[in-house]
């Protein structure tokens, strides 16, 4: 344990990196995948179950928590860790993305964003300073700067103006964050798919100085090829001695491709959302348990997986409980998906440490190309 936040890079394999982020609440092994606990819970999972999958850190959503139950209420009840019974590290986003994507009647100014709640229509004002205050009240271990994230595609002038506003907000976020030993503040690079704008953003963030750096503004509609093309230059524009976080990504092949390009941290709702809709992620790709082909199949979802869904239940059972609308369906499939994601991260960490990431990546794609097992 440590009373400070730090990052140690332990090995590289090509551009892929493995290391450890040290925090007072425990280590975060990188590359790291963060399950998303939107409303102080990873849907369909108990905190102990999430930890059992191998997760070192969770992500919480500032926007959702500020609206319900409110950051002030969570602080009065002992902070987010105690509130949700998760003692390991928590990263909270700034709220900016949700304001842009979920809130109604937004008004954007230099000062911040005024919006109406998607829950009850109540009016709120979110600024860099208020975002820092909310995340302090929550007790976040890793705090994200307040930024604006335009949807892609967008014209260059819109992307440039948004990026420059986000950089001014990053400086205000850093000033408002202050000196908080044991807690970290990450800056967020913007600039769309434009290499020069990404470089300008990275330079502004370096000048301000942060504990870690995120690549923002991707996985917002641009497609995987464009995202990878951006990451080919964006990740390397950020400091090599600090964690690099790709926000909102993604599918397993997105994650492997991002790690191959130098990314250390990722988050996505996909494992839990897919689990609740009858979708499973496996070494062989995506499996749709809704399909009738599984109705009489006594085999496990993945014969090599050690999660409870694969060790104790058949494809036929998982198909049945989903079709019957039973809650155990979402619970088992979410557990499996999170287990698979964490197993994928552990495999990449080992491959990087042994300098065989290229072989790992090739085997990953080859297994997926084979597809799911044949129906009985």
Write the topology of this structure:
Layout: E1 6-13, E2 16-22, E3 28-30, E4 32-37, H1 47-52, E5 58-60, H2 62-67, H3 71-76, H4 80-84, E6 90-92, H5 96-101, E7 104-108, E8 113-116, E9 123-126, H6 128-138, E10 142-144, H7 156-177, E11 184-189, H8 195-208, E12 212-215, H9 224-234, E13 244-246, H10 252-260, E14 265-268, H11 270-276, E15 279-282, E16 285-288, H12 308-312, H13 315-323, H14 327-353, H15 357-370
Parallel strand pairs: 4-5, 4-14, 5-6, 6-10, 10-11, 11-12, 12-13, 13-14
Antiparallel strand pairs: 1-2, 2-3, 7-8, 8-9, 15-16
Helix pairs in contact: 6-7, 7-8, 10-15, 11-14, 13-14, 14-15
Descriptive account of the structure:
There is one protein chain. The protein has 376 residues and is of the alpha/beta class. It has two domains: 6-268, TIM Barrel (Alpha-Beta Barrel); 275-370, no CATH class. The protein is 42% helix and 19% strand. It has an eight-stranded parallel barrel with strand order 4-5-6-10-11-12-13-14, surrounded by six helices. A three-stranded antiparallel beta sheet has the order 1-2-3. Strands 7-8-9 form a three-stranded antiparallel beta sheet. The model has no long low-confidence stretch (mean pLDDT 96).
Q: What tags apply to this protein structure?
A:
single chain, 376 residues, alpha/beta, TIM Barrel, 2 domains, eight-stranded parallel β-barrel, three-stranded antiparallel beta sheet, 16 strands, 42% helix, globular
């Amino acid at each position: 344990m440590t009373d400070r936040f730090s990052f140690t890079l332990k090995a590289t394999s090509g551009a892929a990196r493995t290391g450890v982020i040290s925090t007072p609440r425990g280590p975060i092994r990188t590359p790291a995948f963060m399950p998303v606990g939107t409303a102080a819970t990873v849907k369909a999972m108990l905190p102990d179950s999430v930890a059992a999958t191998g997760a070192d850190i969770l992500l919480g959503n500032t926007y959702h928590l500020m609206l319900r139950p409110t950051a002030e209420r969570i602080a009065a009840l002992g902070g987010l860790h105690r509130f949700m019974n998760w003692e390991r590290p928590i990263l909270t986003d700034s709220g900016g993305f949700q304001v842009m994507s979920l809130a109604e009647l937004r008004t954007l100014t230099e000062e911040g964003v005024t919006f109406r709640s998607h829950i009850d229509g109540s009016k709120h004002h979110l600024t860099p300073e208020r975002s820092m205050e909310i995340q302090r009240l929550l007790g976040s271990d890793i705090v994200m700067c307040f930024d604006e994230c335009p949807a892609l595609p967008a014209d260059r002038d819109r992307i440039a103006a948004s990026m420059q506003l986000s950089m001014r907000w990053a400086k205000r976020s850093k000033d408002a964050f202050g000196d908080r030993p044991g807690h970290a503040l990450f800056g967020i690079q913007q600039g769309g798919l434009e290499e020069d704008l990404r470089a300008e953003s990275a330079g502004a963030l370096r000048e301000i100085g942060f504990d870690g750096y995120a690549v923002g503004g991707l996985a917002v509609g641009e497609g995987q090829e464009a995202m990878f093309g951006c990451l080919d230059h964006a990740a390397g524009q950020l400091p090599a001695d600090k964690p690099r976080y790709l926000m909102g990504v993604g599918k397993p092949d997105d994650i492997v491709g991002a790690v191959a390009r130098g990314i250390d941290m990722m988050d996505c709702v996909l494992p839990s959302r897919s689990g609740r809709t009858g979708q499973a992620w496996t070494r062989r790709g995506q499996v749709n348990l809704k399909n009738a082909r599984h109705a009489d199949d006594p085999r496990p979802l993945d014969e090599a997986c050690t999660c409870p869904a694969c060790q104790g239940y058949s494809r036929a059972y998982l198909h049945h409980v989903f079709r019957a609308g039973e809650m155990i369906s979402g619970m088992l499939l979410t557990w499996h998906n999170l287990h698979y994601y964490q197993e994928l991260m552990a495999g990449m960490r080992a491959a990087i440490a042994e300098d065989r990431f290229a072989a790992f990546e090739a085997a990953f794609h080859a297994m997926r190309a084979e597809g799911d097992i044949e129906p009985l």
